[in-house]
Design brief:
The chain is of the alpha/beta class. The protein has a single domain, classed as Rossmann fold (3-Layer(aba) Sandwich). The protein is built from four helices and eight strands; from the N terminus they run αββαββαββββα. Strands 5-2-6-7-8 form a five-stranded mixed β-sheet. The protein has a three-stranded mixed β-sheet with strand order 1-4-3, covered by helices on one side. The relative contact order is 0.20. The N terminus is likely disordered.
């Protein structure tokens, strides 16, 4: 092997390690869904009844966008699954430690997104079921982030997908269904906790925009 080829390989290896920014073990982050004050303009009062994590996890999937864990996924408890949002990877794309939420859960974050989405459309939300005239149930089908290594940069991507059912408290009740999907992407020179936070921030903004589009079709 020539010295030039050896130098190229060494530089690529070094760049891969530096760009990946991976750490052994679990990386934990705190995500902050957007919140703001909105005027109530519609009569319906919304109660978010259930948000259920229905994501499917895989052992050693071929595609990093498929949820996985740094352990046998069959051994994960419901609580453990509910905090996993991604996997770290080294410069060659090999899966490393988990990326998890710090004192949060996927279902709680999605509930926050739903609350913000309804309020942004002028609906009142309530924590008391008896005060509501619309009951909402939601399943989380996707909530996952992954990294795609490159030579000079690396992207961190995220995807959220939910199936939402709205049921009116009336006689007879009316049922409305909608699906909301969103996507976020952040190009980085090195993957840090901030990279994961930013890609999900973009996915949250996209989610609320898609939520608004779906509500206008109802």
């Amino acid at each position: 092997m020539t010295s030039n080829k050896l130098l190229t390989i060494c530089l690529f290896a070094l760049a891969s390690v530096l760009l990946s920014g991976c750490v052994m073990g679990r990386r934990t982050v705190t995500l902050n869904p957007p919140t703001s004050n909105h005027a109530v303009t519609k009569k319906a009062v919304i109660y978010i009844n259930t948000v259920t994590d229905k994501r499917t996890f895989y052992n050693k999937p071929s595609n990093p966008s498929m949820p996985s864990a740094d352990t046998d996924v069959a051994s994960l408890t419901t609580k453990e699954r509910n905090i996993l949002i991604g996997r770290q990877r080294n410069g060659w794309g090999k899966a490393m430690g988990d990326v998890g939420l710090e004192n949060q859960s996927v279902t709680a974050i999605v509930a926050q997104l739903l609350d913000e989405g309804f309020r942004s459309q002028g609906y009142q939300t309530t924590q008391t079921k008896s005060n509501a005239n619309v009951i909402v149930n939601c399943t989380v089908e996707d909530f996952w982030g992954w990294v795609s290594p490159g030579f000079f940069s690396i992207s961190v991507e995220s995807r959220i997908q939910t199936a939402i059912t709205l049921t009116t408290i009336s006689n007879p009740p009316k049922v409305f269904s909608m699906e909301v999907k969103s996507y976020g992407r952040k190009e980085n020179q090195m993957v840090t906790s901030g990279s994961w936070i930013e890609t999900y921030r973009r996915a949250f903004e996209n989610y609320l925009n898609k939520f608004e589009e779906e509500m206008t079709r109802m």
